[in-house]
C-alpha cells in the first residue's frame, strides 16, 4: 500500500494554500509591491489620512513607475507587460496599505493608460504611454458628472467641431488624480456619439479644483474637472472607439483590480484583529481564547480567502482572454461587500481601539465605503448580474 504524502503544516496566513497556485514570478511581483508599500506608505499613511492629503504624490508616482506598477498589465510603450494575476496581486498589496494608493495606480493604469493603449492612435500612444508608465505624467479619467454617475449615457459634457478643432465644455466630478494630472481622458457627447479626448491639463479653460471635506479616501487626490471652451486639435480624440463601449471597457478593467484590492484592505483589518485578539486580555486571558471571538475570526478568514480565490480565478480567466464583464461585476459585488463586513467585524474585536488611527481598521472601513460606490454601485452590479441571469433588462 502506497502511503500518501504528508500535507504541509497549516499556515494561518494562507489557510487554503493559495500561494501554491502562484508562480515564482507572481510571488516576486507581490513581494516587490509589498516591500515598497511597507517602506513608502505604511509608516506615513495614518498621518496623511488624518490630514486629508497625499503629499509627494508625484514622487510616489515616479517610484511606482520605477517598480513597474503603472499600466503594468499593458504591453509595450514602457509598460511591464505583467499578467492579470500579477497586476491583481499588486492591487491587493497596495490596498492593504491604503485604498487611496491603489486608486492612484488603478486610475493611472486601468483607466487613463488603458484608454490610450486600447483606443488611441499610434502617435498618441508614443506621446503619452512611456511617460505615464514611468510616472513622469499622471493621468486622470473624466466620466462621472455631478448629475450623471450611474447613467453616463446622458452626460452633459459635450465637444463641438469648430473648423479643424474640438471645443469641450462641461464638468466631471469625483475624479481621482485630477488636480495633479498632466493629461485627462475626458468622455464627451459629440454629434457622432460619445467620444474620448486626451486633454492636456495646461490647456486654456481647463481647471481641476480639489474636492475637500471627504471622510473617505482622505489619502487620495479627488477633484472636479471644469472645461470651459477648452480648444483641442483634431488629433486629440481617441480614434478607435465611439459610444459607451469605450469608457465601460476601461471601467471593467479597473473593476478587476478592485476585486483584488478590496481583499487587501480586508486582509490588513483581519490581521490587525488576529494580533489584537492574541494580546488583548480581559477576564484573565486573551480575548482570542473566547468562543465568540474565535467564531468572528473564523468567519472573517473564510470570506477573506474565498474572496482571494475568486480574484485569482478571475485573473486566470483574464489571462486566458475569457473574462466577461458580468464576471467582473460578480467579483466586485462580492469582494467589496465582504471586505466591508470583515472591517466592521474587526472593529468590534478591537473595541474602542478600532476607531483609532493607531490601527488601520477604521481607515480601511471608511475607504471601502467609497470603493463600494465608485466604478459601479452595488445596485448596478446586482442589475448587471440580474440581467445576465434572466435575460431581462431591469435598468430602465
TrEMBL record:
Family: Belongs to the acyl-CoA dehydrogenase family.
Protein's name in the database: Acyl-CoA dehydrogenase family protein
Source organism phylogeny: Bacteria, Bacillati, Actinomycetota, Actinomycetes, Kitasatosporales
Cofactor field: FAD
Protein source organism: Streptomyces marokkonensis
Residue stretches making up the Acyl-CoA dehydrogenase/oxidase N-terminal domain: 24-136
Keyword Acetylation: no
Gene3D superfamilies documented for this protein: Acyl-CoA dehydrogenase/oxidase, N-terminal domain (1.10.540.10), Butyryl-CoA Dehydrogenase, subunit A, domain 2 (2.40.110.10), Butyryl-CoA Dehydrogenase, subunit A, domain 3 (1.20.140.10)
Domain Acyl-CoA dehydrogenase/oxidase C-terminal: 243-389
Every Acyl-CoA oxidase/dehydrogenase middle domain range: 140-230
InterPro entries documented for this protein: Acyl-CoA_Oxase/DH_mid-dom, Acyl-CoA_Oxase/DH_mid-dom_sf, AcylCo_DH-like_C, AcylCo_DH/oxidase_C, AcylCoA_DH/ox_N, AcylCoA_DH/ox_N_sf, AcylCoA_DH/oxidase_NM_dom_sf, Glutaryl-CoA_DH_mitochondrial
Keyword Transit peptide found: yes
Domain of life according to the entry: Bacteria
PANTHER family per UniProt: GLUTARYL-COA DEHYDROGENASE, MITOCHONDRIAL (PTHR42807:SF1)
Keywords: FAD, Flavoprotein, Oxidoreductase, Transit peptide
